[in-house]
Amino acid sequence: MDLFSNLALGFATASTLANIGFCLIGVLLGTLIGVLPGIGATATIAMLLPITFQIGDPVSSLIMLAGIYYGAQYGGSTTAILINMPGESSSAVTAIDGYQMARNGRAGVALATAAIGSFVAGTIATVLIALFAPPLTAMALKFGAAEYTSLMVVGLVMSVALAHGSVIKAIAMVVLGLLLGLVGQDVISGAPRLNFGLYQLGDQLNFVAIAVGLFGIAEILRNLEDERTREVLMAKVTGLMPTREDFRRMTAPILRGTALGSLLGILPGNGAVLAAFASYTIEKRASDRPEEFGKGALAGVAGPESANNAGAQTSFIPMLTLGIPANPVMALMIGAMIIQGIVPGPNVAAENPDLFWGLIASMWIGNLLLIILNLPLIGLWVKLLKVPYYVLFPTIMAFCSIGVYSVNSNVWDLYVVAFFGLLGYFLLKLRCEPAPLLLGFVLGPLLEENLRRAMILSRGDPSTFVTRPISALLLAAAVAVLVIVLLPSVRKKRDEVFVEEDA
Amino acid sequence: MNSLTFDRTNALCGGFFILSGLIFGYQSLTVDLGSWLRIGPGGLPLVLSGLLVLLGAIILVQAARTEGEPAGRIAWRGMLFILLSPLIFGLTVRGLGFIGSVFITSLFASFASYRMKLWMAVVLAVALTVFSTAVFSYGLGLPFERIGPWLR
């Protein structure tokens, strides 16, 4: 019963004209930028983040932000199918068979399959969130400072396990992120620290500036390295409607993909990417025509796209209930919440039920808007693929500068953008993933606060982390994951997975 | 393979983490470290800095044993124009005001690409300025001065 009244509150909040409008703008803007090749969902959200602050109402701005997320993901699949250029690592799998379908003249069907799969997955995942979020919240409310500290350690370890490339580098990036998160004023004593004597930086490094620099600017620079003309094999998009036979063959993959994605999406780290790959493998095994895979199999688009979208959706669960981001996008959402004056964590559901349930309901509305808008608008998005890159990035730079400055009207934030743009590009060149750093940055202050509180509560006895059962269990899980990813055999397997992904 | 080969990218990476760890470590020593009971503002940063130095050292040692691929092309021109444009915006937004600052920033950023021609850059910058002023200044009502004191 509670579920229905909660969902009713959610839909009442999300379906006000203003909020549907913001959701719509978010979905459109997200698709618009997500379609531009080479700009992934994280970079898109980082760039559009400052704009959402102008709305004022935290519920509306988070709804818009979530809309941008789905839009960007959807845009990424479109480029994956049409020009074999995945905007996001999770749509890399879609590119394999989707692009082949497009070359066979079935681009329209591939796009429609991706959209339908995403919508079904999004709907089921929304129900799952509504079912599982409240019990998890109730459990999380019993957590003390020690449990929270351990939980964050688990989150950070998982983000390391699921990052690309070297494990050691990913751990180093997390640590660097944690340190950067601690720059500025100490929360407990109020003492300034680690700020290189630059008091202009304020209490803390500006989160928006760091996200824009690390993800937005660094990505522009990488795109500028090699300015070839994009080889756009633009198949004419005709025949959007799948046949009855197509529908029959996409049903099972969509459902399997949704189940897989929902499960893996909850895991901290980037579960959605993993889910897409796992789904592709499973569909290939389950298919009665495995030889079609790689040559334009419908199931190879339907399964991974559903898995990817379901995972993207359920990754909201740890963010909403525990305040722990499962991926860089959720880290951005948490950063947005903090800036809006909402403390992320289990209290959100109790203190801001309209935000909590409104956001959940808006996920479904966002998915619905995507399917009814994007299929008719596909011609427009295809045109966008032809916009030359050299027109895009001055535009992006202008909007980023305005956006970052508008958050605090502090010119130092703009210098932080430039610095982190340079750092982000440098780290990309060193083959270090920026995602663990951002997670560390968001969790740094929370981790420190809980660690210090836990130590005070235990009267200075560090064994509190292993004598409290839940905390001990969480830490054991973290150690287990770390040991597993460092085991030579697993490491080899993991490298293979990511090599396949990069190919 | 002789013993002198090493992965330059990873060596640089290890060195970078060690250096960052040392800088943060030095800075955390200047504030109160606290005790086990009351961890001070420098406590966690010092531990993390130590960890970062250690990880950097591991990466450095591993780099000495393998030969890596080169880092690839570096977007020098892109770096110059793209990284300086937020700085230019920051330096001019108070003086020139919003309109002038957006114009200069987008004009400057345009030259990051080898393919951009002067007239196109000017057209693009004008278009962006008109659009941003309409949307951000009039539409969203951001509280920035449109024409700054330098132009009055």
Task: Tell me about this structure.
The complex is a heterodimer of chains A (503) and B (152). Chain A has 503 residues and is mainly α. Chain A has 22 helices and two strands. Chain A has helices spanning 2-14, 17-35, 41-53, 58-83, 92-103, 107-141, 145-161, 167-181, 207-225, 244-266, 271-286, 299-314, 316-322, 328-339, 347-351, 353-384, 389-408, 411-429, 434-457, 464-467, 469-486, 488-502; strands at residues 184-185, 192-193. In chain A, a hairpin with a 6-residue loop joins strand 1 and strand 2. The longest helix of chain A is centred in the N-terminal third of the chain and has 35 residues, at 107-141. The mean pLDDT of chain A is 81. Chain B contains five helices and no strands. By secondary structure, chain B is an all-alpha fold. Chains A and B meet through helix 8, helix 9, helix 17, helix 18 and helix 19 of A and helix 1, helix 2, helix 3, helix 4 and helix 5 of B.
Strand order of the largest sheet of chain A: 1-2
Question: Residue-averaged pLDDT of chain A, rounded?
Answer: 81
In which range does the helix fraction of chain A lie?
A: over 70%
Number of helices of chain A: 22
What low-confidence regions of chain A span 5 or more consecutive residues with pLDDT below 50? none
> What structural class is derived from the secondary structure elements of chain A?
mainly alpha
Beta strand count of chain B: 0
The fraction of residues assigned to DSSP E strands of chain B is: under 5%
Largest interface: A-B, 68 and 74 residues
Largest sheet features of chain A: 2 strands, antiparallel
Helical content of chain B, roughly?
55-70%
Radius of gyration of chain B equals 24 Å
Distance between the termini of chain B: 68 Å
Beta-strand segment tally of chain A: 2
Quote the average pLDDT of chain B.
Answer: 84
